[in-house]
């Protein structure tokens, strides 16, 4: 007997059919009826059944590294948070969450810290992933709305992939795109400094200067205007800011891209003459000190042409994590309110506070991820709760972040396995894992899918929403957190979204408030009497005060850190095909580690020869922030002067392979997203070759 659930890895959100064997194992297949994957799976999803079991699981609460009972542990957590709030105010505490959390868990955490503790110091590792897309959407659309759907990739004539190694990072979406190319000849352009696996299917690869994407899309906007491809009627009715955006684009230098004139001309020719264009963008755009501007440079082109929210056309931000979108929907970021309502808007704050009947509501944004750990380091944050993420490895300047966590007065970590971060915690809470917990996730095209349990919770592990409610009850708010199931949390979230809908916001799933939660099929939002799923903005209807989208004038900015004699190489970072984040689950499947077994550094043959680096030897990589030792992989997939290293290895799996220790805590001024793809480093052989 198989059951339907959803993959816990990337933002594609593939549906699964799981058949438990009754002994703690299960076979996993793709769900042929799920609209994200129609039965397809990638290597990670296929190996999910091999990752079950209790290796390294945390099975009981721990205080100071020793097992403790739940009552004592929860009392301690509540009392330490209460003490910090009493002595130093609500802004002395913080939650750091994760796109791995289910929507119900995220909702509970956001309600506790914003509505009851009364601080907006809640942020998430999604800040490292897609915050620039959120900020760009809000600037252009007045809301964090993904206009299109996955079907648009099936029906586009031209797909431009910008800063997105779709083949490795969103493999099933890539499979859909390749199938469309075979079936109908879809043209594919890849914009990426590195020649990734995705380029294998590209008709054109634009290996541009790192960070110059905004210059490319400014050039595209100028070409659209000069070649008569602007949809004057759409702009006149639905868009503001066209003239200023075009003037800024004309002032920007396409030479910044470093592209060969013929390649640039070919791209502009296709981009201006094809109506059904989808521009997919991901971390190569977002993880930048000018990420929000890059997003808006892309959105400008689609708004100018009206190629948005119609079949086969639109800008499309793909999310890294399985529930990055759900976190956005519940407002689990420092500058957001629940249900896409705005923290700065008094009417929105009053609506949420009224719905929650809560004693408090912050009126200012809280600390974003990098700021939060800086505040931990300086002692401003006295109590910190980290849920399902490993910032001691994955934050920029990871060594400094680990030291900050170690020095914090009181740190709680909820997780499923021991990590570099749980080892620094005062209290560790054992959480249920994928296959054990019940809830929902939202994928990159707004489809809400159920994760369903098929295994019992091991040891004393508990669901996250329940742990949060248990602590809230001890802090005096038992009534507001009195849920008895994830279904009740979801129903409350859906009901609150109806209020957001009445206030004119995009996120409204009030039609699901009474739904049969257990049987809930994959459902794209919004779900209201007026609209079920579909696309946004094809006929205008933006969520700005005047209902018009905003085009923004964009002046391209290159990465903050510039290479120089001491640090002459530009370091790009990213994922590999068969590992996920810090490998908590994927490392349990031996066949996944066979693809690439250890951290590596891709370097161009000319640079390797100059530095005396032989293939497969070790290189010492240093930046102003830290050092790493990586296996040398000599390849012309990277340009001279540029290197690439993957992000997955931790203190457990490769103590000197922690690449985020090299990344500077430099952020985009609008989105707060770190510049994780543009460090400057020096490289030397670990031992002479
Ligand atoms: Fe899971 Fe993403 Fe692979 Fe789908 S593409 S099976 S969601 S990792």
Can you walk through the features of this model?
The protein is built from 22 helices and 26 strands. With 689 residues, it is of the alpha/beta class. The protein folds into 4 domains: 3-51, Single Sheet (N-terminal domain of TfIIb); 62-122 and 334-524, 3-Layer(aba) Sandwich (Rossmann fold); 131-318 and 546-550, Dimethylsulfoxide Reductase, domain 2; 569-685, Beta Barrel (Barwin-like endoglucanases). The strands form 6 sheets. Strands 5-4-16-15-14-6-7 form a 7-stranded mixed β-sheet, with helices on both faces. Strands 21-25-22-24-23-26 form a 6-stranded mixed beta barrel. Strands 10-9-8-12-13 form a 5-stranded parallel β-sheet. Helix 3 packs parallel to helix 14, helix 3 (103-117) crosses helix 20 and helix 4 crosses helix 13. The radius of gyration is 24 Å and the shape is globular. It starts with a strand and ends with a strand. Bound molecules: iron/sulfur cluster. Iron/sulfur cluster binds next to helix 1 and helix 7. Iron/sulfur cluster is lined by residues 7, 9-10, 12-14, 37, 41-42, 44-45, 170-172.
Concise structural overview:
With 689 residues, this protein is of the alpha/beta class. The chain is 31% helix and 17% strand.
Note the topology:
Elements: E1 3-6, E2 15-20, E3 26-30, H1 43-46, E4 62-63, E5 66-67, H2 70-88, E6 93-97, H3 103-117, E7 122-124, H4 131-141, H5 151-155, E8 158-162, H6 166-169, H7 171-184, E9 187-191, E10 204-206, H8 213-226, H9 232-238, E11 239-240, H10 242-251, H11 261-273, E12 277-281, H12 283-286, H13 291-305, E13 314-317, H14 324-330, H15 346-356, H16 369-377, E14 383-387, H17 391-394, H18 398-407, E15 410-415, E16 427-430, E17 439-442, E18 447-451, H19 464-474, H20 486-502, E19 523-524, E20 549-550, E21 569-574, H21 590-593, E22 600-603, H22 605-611, E23 618-622, E24 627-634, E25 642-646, E26 679-685
Parallel strand pairs: 6-7, 6-14, 8-9, 8-12, 9-10, 11-20, 12-13, 14-15, 15-16, 21-25, 22-24
Antiparallel strand pairs: 1-2, 2-3, 4-5, 4-16, 17-18, 18-19, 21-26, 22-25, 23-24, 23-26
Bound molecules: iron/sulfur cluster (SF4).
Iron/sulfur cluster (SF4) binds next to α1 and α7.
């Amino acid at each position: 007997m198989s059951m339907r659930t959803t993959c816990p890895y990337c933002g594609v959100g593939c549906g699964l059919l799981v058949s438990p064997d009754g002994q703690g194992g299960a076979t996993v297949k793709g769900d042929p009826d799920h609209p994200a994957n129609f039965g397809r799976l990638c290597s990670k999803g296929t190996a999910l059944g091999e990752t079950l079991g209790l290796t390294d699981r945390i099975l009981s609460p721990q205080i100071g590294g020793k097992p403790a009972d739940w009552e004592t542990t929860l009392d301690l957590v509540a009392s330490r948070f209460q003490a910090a709030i009493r002595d130093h105010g609500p802004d002395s505490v913080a939650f750091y969450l994760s796109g791995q959390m289910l929507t119900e868990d995220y909702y509970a955490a956001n309600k506790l810290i914003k509505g009851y503790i009364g601080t907006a110091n809640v942020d998430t590792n999604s800040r490292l992933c897609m915050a620039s897309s959120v900020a760009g959407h809000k600037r252009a659309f007045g809301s964090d709305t993904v206009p299109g759907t996955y079907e648009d990739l099936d029906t586009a004539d031209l797909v431009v992939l910008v800063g997105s190694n779709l083949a490795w990072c969103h493999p099933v979406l890539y499979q859909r795109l390749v199938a469309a190319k075979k079936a109908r000849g879809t043209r594919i352009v890849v914009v990426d400094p590195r020649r990734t696996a995705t380029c294998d299917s590209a008709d054109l690869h634009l290996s541009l200067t790192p960070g110059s994407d905004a210059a490319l899309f400014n050039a595209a906007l100028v070409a659209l205007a000069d070649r008569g491809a602007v949809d004057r009627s759409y702009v006149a009715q639905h868009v503001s800011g066209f003239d200023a955006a075009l003037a800024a684009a004309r002032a920007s230098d396409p030479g910044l891209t470093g592209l060969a004139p013929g390649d640039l001309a070919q791209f502009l020719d296709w981009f201006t003459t094809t109506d059904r264009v989808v521009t997919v963008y991901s971390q190569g755009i977002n993880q930048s000190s000018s990420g929000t501007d890059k997003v808006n440079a892309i959105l400008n082109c689609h708004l100018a042409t009206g190629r948005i929210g119609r079949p086969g056309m639109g800008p499309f931000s793909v999310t890294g994590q399985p529930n990055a979108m759900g976190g956005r929907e519940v407002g689990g970021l420092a500058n957001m309110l629940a249900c896409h309502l705005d923290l700065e808007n008094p009417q929105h704050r009053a609506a949420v506070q009224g719905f929650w009947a809560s004693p408090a509501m912050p009126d200012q944004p809280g600390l974003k991820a990098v700021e939060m750990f800086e505040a931990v380091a300086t002692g401003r944050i006295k109590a910190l709760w980290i849920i399902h993420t490993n910032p001691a490895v994955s934050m920029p300047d990871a060594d400094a972040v680990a030291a900050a966590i170690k020095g914090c007065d009181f740190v709680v970590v909820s997780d499923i396995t021991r990590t570099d971060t749980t080892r620094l915690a005062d209290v560790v809470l054992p959480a249920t894992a994928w296959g054990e917990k019940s809830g929902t996730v939202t994928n990159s095209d707004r489809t809400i899918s159920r994760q369903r349990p098929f295994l019992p919770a091991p040891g004393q592990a508990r669901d996250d929403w329940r742990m949060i409610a248990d602590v809230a009850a001890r802090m005096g708010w038992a009534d507001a957190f009195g849920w008895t199931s994830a279904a009740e949390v979801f129903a409350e979230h859906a009901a609150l979204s109806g209020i957001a809908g009445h206030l004119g916001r995009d996120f409204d799933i009030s039609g699901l408030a009474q739904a049969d939660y257990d049987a809930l099929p994959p459902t794209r939002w919004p779900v209201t009497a007026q609209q079920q799923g579909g696309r946004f903005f094809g006929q205008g209807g933006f969520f700005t005060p005047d209902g018009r989208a905003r085009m923004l004038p964009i002046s391209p900015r290159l990465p903050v850190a510039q290479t120089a004699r001491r640090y002459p190489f530009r370091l790009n970072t990213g994922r590999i095909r068969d590992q996920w984040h810090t490998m908590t689950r994927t490392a349990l499947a031996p066949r996944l580690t066979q693809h690439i077994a250890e951290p590596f550094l891709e370097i161009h043959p000319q640079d390797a020869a100059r530095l005396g680096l032989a293939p497969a030897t070790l290189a010492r990589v240093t930046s102003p922030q830290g050092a790493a030792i990586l296996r040398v992989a000599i390849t012309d997939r990277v340009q001279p002067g540029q290197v690439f290293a993957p992000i997955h290895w931790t203190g457990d799996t490769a103590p000197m392979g922690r690449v985020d220790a090299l990344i500077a805590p430099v952020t985009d001024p609008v989105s707060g997203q770190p510049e994780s793809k543009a460090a400057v480093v020096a490289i030397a052989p670990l031992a002479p070759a």
